[in-house]
Amino acid sequence: MAQVTVDPLIGRLVDGRYEIVARVARGGMATVYRAHDGRLNREIALKVMHPHLAEGEQAASFRQRFEREARSAAGLQHHGVVAVYDQGTDGDMRYLTMEYVPGTNLRQLIRDGSLTLRRSFAVLDVVLSALAAAHAKGIVHRDIKPENVLLEEGTGRPKVADFGLARAVSEVSNTTTGTVLGTVAYLAPETISTGHVDMRADVYAVGILAFELFTGRLPHEGEGPIQVAYAHVNSDVPPVSAFAGHLGRPLDLLVRALTARDPDRRPRDAAVALDALRNTFQQIPNEVLDIPASAAPPPSATAVKAVRTAVVERPAAGRWAAHPQPYPQAQPPLPPAAKPRRGGKVLLALALVAVLLGAWWYTESGPGAYAVVPDGVVGVTAQAAEEALTEAGLKPSSTEQHDSEVPEGEVISVVPDEGQRWRRDQQVRLVVSLGQELAEVPAGLVGMREPEARDALQGVGLSDVEVSREYTNDGPRDEVIWASVRDGDMVPTDEQVRLTVSDGPPPVTVPDVTGQEVADATDTLSADGFDVAREDVFDEETPAGTVIRTDPGGGKGAEEGGTVTVFVSMGPEGTVPDVAGMSVADAQEVLEKAGYKVQVRGFGELFGEGVLETEPVAGEQLKQGGKVTIWTL
């Protein structure tokens, strides 16, 4: 009988808080478990570093890398990134707690073969958007692959996981160990050959992921990792149209740009790659977007043959699909003759065709198809920038947006950046400043309640609001009594608006009446403008009829004209309370609360008179449940 090995951590309570329920996955640095957070009553993913990594000479390096994951990922707030909650140690165990994402990963979706081009673009859009957020903070993922793209159960929403190999760019650009981290099928050529990793390595990995989503296979396959790594360094990624007949030239160009072997020819980061992805998506017909991968038409025999050459055939007018053709082979020159024979004419014609095809390739796909975005187009007028781009052989287009620093009419940025190579037939996008965006200050801010003032300011685009509060007699509590802007002023939308809000009148100090007779305490509090409420309670130490404490307490601040409750001793439990001077109804309530039965005698109740005395008299001991007689007039 086979022996079943049970993970010893299942069922363990980590750090007195996280109960490990099941193992989810195991990687090169750590094992991921599903666990229950007993403190917050939620499911989490618990990532535990392998114990052997914390031993030997490299222990400190691995521990630092593991802890760096928490610091890097915890700073990423993006809907497409698996959230990291906490990190800690429990004995010799080092762990991270992360968002638990029930469902599957992108690898399973690729194996199913049901991906449409539309769904592939949606997944890639989220992946690049998440990486763009990381790149903006100087963080490189280093291990983009289908297993690290999780798909939420039910919604199918992608989330990028495992920033465990991520490092700040400043740290990874000076690699000294010679160690290459990552999955070889998705590693950039420069990472394999030199160990260098920057944002463009993530872009390359996304390009390989795009190839796999579009075609259902990897571009470079071999018997082992060494052969695959060799292919990445020495061979271009073939066109995707060579493996699926419904994919056309825009997709070939997109994957070619993302997977260029020279990192300088790739988008500089995920944000630029995301723009390229979205531009490509706009060029694809709807009927092509919705073809499942399993139902994709096969490529032509010519296309398959042309995979090694990576040359894309120019599509016929009105056609979407395009298939690669091999480079034309130059023909030998005709032998000299006074009168060329028929075969010589054929060779001459073939040579002419070769020249024409070579010229077409040079201008459409070769070096002649590209130009360099000139320097000096940012910070000049839009007209000057467009003229410079046109002179460089590029097609300018422009969009406008408000900017508080760049003057109106000047270029804020250009995509792609200055100095980048770009296809002549694709537009270079200029972002032109509209100047500062202004908003009109709404009328009546002073006098509004704070929430209404905030809503009014946000309604016109002024969202940076700072509120301070102060005691004042100028307005009721929570009302705006001052604003840093005036009604009707035109101010920049990024300006901070400061509001002062009333906290009501200044508080009045409550006098200390502890130990006074209740009548004296009431007079003192009333003289300071307070309303007085009375609460009678048993007390073993304070004589009956004496104030035990007040709420608010003596020396504390209270709103002027507010109510102060005095707690009056009824003496020890079993002592008849003093109800003399009270109305009959109030006296009955106090005595019954003390546990006595009440009997009323006299005519005071008829004539509106209060209690004269009680029998037994106040202060006498009487067992609870006994009878107290109230005497009135």
Automatic annotation (TrEMBL):
Entry's EC annotation: 2.7.11.1
Gene3D superfamilies assigned to the protein according to its UniProt record, in alphabetical order: 3.30.10.20, Phosphorylase Kinase, domain 1, Transferase(Phosphotransferase) domain 1
SMART domains found in the cross-reference section: PASTA (SM00740), S_TKc (SM00220)
UniProt keyword ATP-binding present: yes
Protein kinase domain sequence ranges: 18-282
SUPFAM superfamilies hit by this protein: Penicillin-binding protein 2x (pbp-2x), c-terminal domain (SSF54184), Protein kinase-like (PK-like) (SSF56112)
MF annotations from Gene Ontology: protein serine/threonine kinase activity
The keyword Oxidoreductase appears for this protein: no
Assigned keywords, A-Z: ATP-binding, Kinase, Nucleotide-binding, Serine/threonine-protein kinase, Transferase
Residues of the PASTA domain: 363-434, 504-570, 571-633
Protein origin, superkingdom: Bacteria
PANTHER family assigned to the protein according to its UniProt record, in alphabetical order: MITOGEN-ACTIVATED PROTEIN KINASE KINASE KINASE 20-RELATED, SERINE_THREONINE-PROTEIN KINASE YBDM-RELATED
NCBIfam families referenced in this protein's UniProt entry, alphabetically: PknB_PASTA_kin
Name by which UniProt lists this protein: non-specific serine/threonine protein kinase
